[in-house]
TrEMBL record:
It comes from the Eukaryota. Residues 161-464 form the Aladin seven-bladed propeller domain. GO terms for cellular component: nuclear pore. Pfam families: Beta-prop_Aladin. This is Aladin seven-bladed propeller domain-containing protein. It comes from Timema genevievae. SMART domains: WD40 (SM00320).
Length: 489
């Protein structure tokens, strides 16, 4: 059955073999009831959701698997919000300087466009008619090109923190006390970027480390380097800082000597970072740049991965099997890349853009959500790239031309008056492929699905009592719920 949704870029809407299909779709109506008033959820184990009174909530009562996890408490006193650029200027008294020196300073600090705007101000045109005449006409030309650029890429109307907030996978990024976080893939370490432009590293066996420098502002994303102990990539408005910390050091405030800044022209702010599973390569993306960069961090060398259409790249995710990469633009285009040759299959969504995506542990399925539909899409990608066919398949099989709707997250009102669902901000799939956590844009609740990979995609169902996962090597999985008293999320 064909429905609204997706089409590969090579397909047409009227071709039913190249549209989005529904298969075993789950909805929020199937979930169990929420905890009673005064209780909060502390954990979910084996399909059973456990809740307790807020005053004495403790997950250790139900399981010891989190006893070694670090304790995180973000308070108002802990955060010292960084001054923005406008606030910083107010600290200094104005100094009298000639027009040319002032324009040079403005150009250096804020760019050529703002310098031209300053020179074209009426007072400056009167005092310096030649400078004002040139600046006025240059502005007119620049405005024409800017108008065309904004028409093609509306997302570029936002700049700096506003742009990061628009594409971030954090609800209310601009005011959230926690802006992004990353669990280490191999050990119990948590990197947590906060509102004051610092990154705190929590571990059960060492003091909390705080990494911060004056140029590391507007943190959009963080990612641990696999197969290392303390190497962290931090994407921000100046580029990406790669912090290499000494695991034997007891210093809680590492110096900038531990950091390497990787940056490229027109590649800021960095809104996406992802490491290869082997940890040898780092890929960065920016919502303002159509080019992604693959970095050799030690050599500080890069290789550009460029596609001119679709807009800047805001979502990047390397598959656990290392052979594929998912990237999504600020337009309707997203791609699945073969990382051996860096060729891609190109897909389009009907409207909006891809907001978030995550891979199955086997790397055969990618789930993603858009900014305009409360749906989780499932795309089976194992056979998109085949040794027996060209890496870029112009005519893939009918099965591989279809993205399945795995879950309908339409906003619902529960019996006790809570609203759940709507557009998705972020998703996380556990490393065993058994649980999927979903964070919504307008709902403060988190939905946890039990999940499995099928021959055509992913099967999602509500976590509920009576579900007993079985299989070789299966360990009980616990999804922690985090409570932020400052109202972020």
């Amino acid at each position: 059955m064909s429905v609204r949704g997706l089409k590969p870029s090579w397909g047409q809407y009227q071709n039913p073999g190249r549209t989005c299909l529904i298969e075993n779709m789950c909805s929020l109506d199937n979930f169990p009831r929420l905890p009673p008033e005064g209780e909060i959820v502390v954990c979910e184990m084996n399909g059973q959701v456990h809740s307790m009174n807020y005053d004495r909530a403790d997950a250790i009562i139900f399981t010891t698997s989190v006893s070694s996890n670090p304790k995180v408490n973000i308070t108002k006193e802990l955060l010292h919000t960084s001054l923005n650029r406008q606030d910083t200027r107010r600290v200094f008294l104005p100094v009298s300087e000639n027009i040319f020196k002032r324009l040079v300073n403005i150009c250096y600090e804020n760019g050529l466009y703002e310098a031209l705007e300053t020179a074209a101000e009426p007072d400056n045109v009167t005092a310096f008619p030649v400078v004002g005449f040139i600046a006025t006409h240059l502005l007119r030309v620049a405005n024409v090109f800017t108008s065309i650029r904004y028409t093609l890429h509306p997302h570029l109307r936002e700049l700096g923190d506003n742009l990061i907030a628009a594409v971030s996978e954090t609800r209310n990024w601009a005011h959230s006390p926690v802006r992004c976080l990353s669990w280490h893939p191999h050990c119990t370490k948590l990197a947590l970027a906060t509102l004051d432009d610092s990154v705190r590293i929590y571990s059960c066996d060492t003091p909390t480390r705080i990494i911060k420098c004056k140029t590391q502002r507007g943190i959009a994303c963080v990612a641990w380097r696999p197969l290392t102990s303390l190497v962290l990539a931090v994407g921000c408005d100046k580029g990406v800082f790669v912090w290499s910390l000494d695991p034997t050091s007891m210093a809680t405030r590492p110096t900038t000597n531990c950091a390497t800044l990787l940056k490229r022209p027109h590649h800021t702010p960095v809104t996406g970072v992802t490491w290869s599973p082997q940890g040898d390569l780092l890929l960065t993306s920016s919502a303002t740049d159509t080019t992604m960069y693959v970095w050799d961090v030690e050599l500080e060398e890069f290789s550009p991965v460029r596609r001119v259409d679709g807009g800047g790249v805001n979502v990047v995710s390397w598959s656990p099997c290392s052979t594929k990469l998912f990237s999504a633009t600020t337009g309707t285009t997203f791609r699945v890349w073969d990382t051996s040759q860096w060729t891609a299959d190109r897909w389009n969504v009907i409207s909006g853009r891809v907001q978030t995506a995550c891979w199955s542990p086997c790397g055969s399925v990618v789930l993603f959500c858009t900014t305009t539909e409360p749906l989780i899409y499932s795309l089976f990608v194992t056979k998109l790239f085949s040794l027996s066919t060209p890496l870029y398949q112009e005519q893939p099989s009918e099965l591989l031309q279809s993205a399945l709707i795995a879950a309908d997250l339409t906003l619902i009102l529960t019996e006790d008056g809570h609203t759940v669902g709507g557009l998705v901000v972020s998703m996380a799939w556990d490393n065993k492929g058994c649980r999927l956590a979903v964070l919504f844009r307008d709902s403060p609740l988190v939905a946890v699905f039990r999940s499995s990979v099928t021959p055509t995609g992913a099967n999602l169902a509500p976590c509920a009592p009576g579900y007993e996962p079985r299989g070789p090597g299966f360990d009980s999985l616990l999804v922690p719920w985090v409570f932020f008293p400052l109202g972020g999320g």
